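Quick one before lunch.
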Amino acid sequence: MGSEISRIGVLGAGQMGGGIAQVAAQRGLQVLLADVDRAAAEAGKAKIAKALGRLVEKAKLTADERTATLGRIEPVDSVAAFESVELAIEAATENIDLKKKLMVGLDGACKAGAILATNTSSISITLLAAQTKRPEQVIGMHFMNPVPVMELVEVIRGLATSDATYEATIALAAAMGKVTVTSKDCPGFIVNRVLIPMINEACFALQEGLGTAADIDLGVKKGLNHPMGPLELADLIGLDTCLAIADVLLGQLGDDKYRAANNLRMHVAAGWLGRKTGRGFYEYGSR
Ligand code: CAA
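Model of the acetoacetyl-coenzyme A complex:
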């Protein structure tokens, strides 16, 4: 196992799933890409084609490499086509009921012995694994956004995850050019345990009028040397995702220091989810 993984399935062709599929294919893996239907999977591949096109324009990739990479990504109708993969990664919306359902679907579709990885950013791997008949082969593989740029993958073992599954996952992440850290299965894992309270605190600061969004972001960028301020980063991640993670931290850790700022909740209620909807804490032109 391990570095032998050469064929993966990615469930979810959005921001994260598309990025995972892109990086895997750039590194020579065969990728089956599924979403709610074939059209959504095709749309995901079209976005990857655009992203690779930008790399060609910048001379970071040759036109032939782009063609070869795209040739390794096959949009499929559903996870029923995942029968042949050695590892499937679920990268759907951060919603516990949805993720539970998808794990059951992947368990039914993938062959015995295949690893089921989830890109969840906050939901318990042990809980998701328990939805399947193969908890030993379930693991967390948490990529960062934007996946092609960010070096890290957090790897999270559930209570039942086997050593073989863990080692194969670490090897796959390395084959994808990623650095790994291993986190315990605890809400938020390592990165979001630190990041989401910071973003949420920036939302409180904005709500309390400490400064404008631009000042809060500039303060963190220039004062702490972060590449992005917390509010613009929240817009990049998706305010719905940030809120979902904050709610998991609050619900599972039970400490009200994790309660989401009202303005974060209201932005989500308004459908102002960040870059992906054209408006979050900032407004974005069509992209
Ligand atoms: N896809 C692919 N490449 C991208 C990209 C994307 N979505 N966005 C930017 N890039 C590339 C650019 O093409 C550029 O590449 P070159 O240097 O080779 O030309 C490079 O990244 C830098 O981009 P830009 O010059 O446009 O902009 P920048 O220097 O401001 O960098 C950034 C953009 C990489 C997003 C940077 O601001 C950054 O690192 N921000 C922090 C991102 C971060 O913290 N991500 C983690 C979020 S937490 C998470 O994902 C976990 C969770 O569960 C919520």
